[in-house]
Amino acid sequence: MAEFATNESYITEFVILGFSNSLEQKVPLFLIFLLIYLFTLVSNLLIITLIFLHRNLHTPMYFFLCNLSFLDIFLTSVTAPNLLHNIISENKRISFSACIAQLFLFNILTTVEYMLLTSMSYDRYQAICNPLRYYQNMNKNTCQIFAGMAWIGGFLAPLPISISISALPFCSSNQINHIFCDVAPLLKIACGDTSATERLIFVAGVLVVLNCFILTVTSYVFIISTILKLSTSKGRRKAFSTCSSHLTAIILFYAMIASMYMKRPSSYSLDEGKVQSVLFSNIIPMLNPVIYTLKNNDVKETINRMTHISFKSLRSRRDTMK
């Protein structure tokens, strides 16, 4: 599993330990994660299809939601197929280059999600605090600029960290006690000085995570202040309903980020991190469509309309055949 050069040893592949190797747990774990992955793909593809096909959903909020659904499909696809393979297979090896690629892609998509959720917070701020100028302030060009900045920024921000980790020497162990190639598990097995990489992670956290969090909180301070100033309880409920789905997704996302990454890598518990990583990389992408569907009347009405049309078409076809 490790190859040797003439003067020094270096690792060219890793072994991802994943979960228990117990034969009794393999099939149930595989089926659970397979169902989660399939549900995530189908539900997010459904949202994308609904938004694409129905003009009443061609609004700034659904433009960002469509981007979020694409993102969740990619995010879970970076880790889930490899996780499923590792559960059912005895071969848990991954090449060094594939491991770094997985790390980079996961960090890209996570960073994009910070920025997209922040853009959605600003969208909700404009919708509630400036409703008369909403479509002027959040026009097509503005939405595309916000989304483009999120995807480009998501690619650039994790690049120094990924390069720094790829340059670290891995010579003592090639076993990653995790479910995929993530930052903290890789730093745990690196045999060189990781302080420079940890400083990069801190700087990225301040520049991306902290700034996105501050901008999101600021948006919601203005949103809540505006809602509380409304004269009727009905108006307050209606205004809050327009941002309740996004607020739920924001709380869930940042709660998971805080539990996973707001600590020094040296104090990171790998066994605890496995569970948190499953929640973050598999459960959140699965829950996002559910949150936005269950709490969003426009999406529910569109689904009901599509279901009604489908049943009506089937009934008319059956009557024709008779």
From TrEMBL:
Belongs to the G-protein coupled receptor 1 family. InterPro entries: GPCR_Rhodpsn, GPCR_Rhodpsn_7TM, Olfact_rcpt, Olfactory_GPCR. Pfam families: 7tm_4 (PF13853). The chain crosses the membrane at residues 29-53, 65-88, 94-117, 145-168, 200-228, 240-262. It is a multi-pass membrane protein. Its main location: membrane. It is found in: Cell membrane. Residues 43-292 form the G-protein coupled receptors family 1 profile domain. Keywords: Cell membrane, G-protein coupled receptor, Glycoprotein, Membrane, Olfaction, Receptor, Sensory transduction, Transducer, Transmembrane, Transmembrane helix. One of its GO terms (cellular component) is plasma membrane. This is Olfactory receptor. It comes from the Eukaryota. The lineage of its organism: Eukaryota, Metazoa, Chordata, Craniata, Vertebrata. GO terms for molecular function: G protein-coupled receptor activity; olfactory receptor activity. SUPFAM superfamilies: Family A G protein-coupled receptor-like.
